[in-house]
Amino acid sequence: MSASDEDRIAYLAGEPVESLTSEERAELDELRGLLEADEMWAQPPAELEDRVVAAIADAAGTAEAPEPARAPRPQQFATPVQPAEVRRAARDAEAREPRQAPAPRPAPSPQAARVVKKPRRERSWVMTILERPAYAFGVLAVLVAVVAGITALSNSGGGSPSPAPLQFAMVVNGTSLAPGAHGSATLTKMSSGWQVELSASGLPHLTNGRYYQAWLKNSAGVLVPIGTFNDAVKVTLWSGVPVTQFRTLSVTRQEANGNPASSGERVLIGTIKNSG
Amino acid sequence: MAHAGLSTGFRDGDPDAVRAVYREYGRLVYAVAYRVLGDRGLAEEATQQTFVKAWKAAASFDAERELGPWLVAIARRVAIDVSRREAVRAADPLDSVAPGHPALTSTPESAEAVYDVWEVRRALDELPPEEQDIVRLQHFRGYTHVEIAERLDLPVGTIKSRSFRAHKRLAALLGHLREE
């Protein structure tokens, strides 16, 4: 049975909602995963605007005039007679980019159609909210529910909501140091951090001062240790950094020799490819 | 959204129009590039390349159409190209993993995910600042309502009501875009 619109909004807002189906949760978790992602909130540096304008001015100047310092006259770009280089660039870009544009409605090619249609299907809950015949009443109901919910929560002492856990999964593969190793990991957001449940086979049990250490790494190459263990058959690790940003999980062989840094002897590695 | 005149100005390379288009779409293009590349510096490079490529191809752009979907396709392609270039570079110094090992293969996000990023980021930009703050602190920072209230020095009830309002608006914005 489909959950009500207000339940979906409440779940999206982090309220504990029991009535959602697993499919609905997955759809909303995908959106929540996007809201947690760094790229949703990162701002480009202010000077990037000047760089973009300058780069286009440079391109225009290069295409139109032999003197680089000359003020660009890009309006000539749109005239029928263009320098060969510009015509080539435009033709190349046109051939590669615009035909793949995910225009909202038209489906000029199978690829474009896929780009357009898939997100529509994936976010059908949003469509459902707005397409239902009783939407007008639904909006009123949501408003009433929101007010009632706020009132109830305020009266209950204002305890913080406990959102349903956000979860990722990844495959881990052995490196050349352990080519037979493979497994998987589940990464779950908990109130105290990210719980990483790793299960892998093909790695020998290490003892006598030798052990495995798991790490998470972000795109800048920063390594964060998340735990040590003797074998990886079934191990639970904990991360204090978000796996939405530290997407690569690796396992190294270590020795208890007083040096806590990574040995560089990676035996397992995997990366979160997609959110949700 | 950019109107036809702005698209025409961009197509013609008018610097003011280029700036206006950047201000309208720069953050969104950057978000898409960042999504694919996972690196701010590379995302900046890809953003710059995207606008240059768009300008170069702009003569073929129908100014009556919306610029955004066209830009996101270019941004995606540019970011994938940058990602592939970086993947080749990054393969050399790795000490313990054979080049080309499947575990190291970096697959950029799918086109669908990139389009999701574009739409959600655009919806977030349309939230009032106080609601955007709540959503950011709640989802990106992982704060509870109580923690947000302490941080913003506001009553918990106010935070909760803003949170509900923000998420409702967010859903409506996304739904509206999808109904177009």
Briefly note the CATH topology name of the largest domain in chain A: Immunoglobulin-like
With strands numbered from the N-terminus, the spatial order across the biggest sheet of chain A is 5-4-7-8-1-2-3-6
Question: What is the CATH architecture descriptor of the largest domain in chain B?
Answer: Orthogonal Bundle
CATH architecture of the largest domain in chain A: Sandwich
Tally of separate helices of chain A? 8
Mean pLDDT of chain A: 67
Structural overview:
The complex is a heterodimer of chains A (276) and B (180). Chain A is an alpha+beta fold and 276 residues long. Chain A contains eight helices and eight strands; from the N terminus they run ααααααααββββββββ. Chain A has an eight-stranded antiparallel sheet with strand order 5-4-7-8-1-2-3-6, with no helix packed on it. Chain A starts with a helix and ends in a 5-residue tail after the last strand. With 180 residues, chain B is mostly helical. Chain B has two domains: 1-106, Rna Polymerase Sigma Factor, Chain: A, CATH 1.10.1740; 127-180, Winged helix-like DNA-binding domain superfamily/Winged helix DNA-binding domain (Arc Repressor Mutant, subunit A). In chain B, 74% of the residues lie in helices and 0% in strands. In chain B, α1 packs across α2 and α2 packs across α4. Chain B is elongated and about 55 Å long. Chain B starts with a helix and ends with a helix. In chain B, 49% of the residues are buried. Mean pLDDT of chain B is 80; it is low at 101-111 and 176-180. At the A-B interface, α1, α2, α3, α4 and α5 of A face α2, α3, α4, α5 and α6 of B.
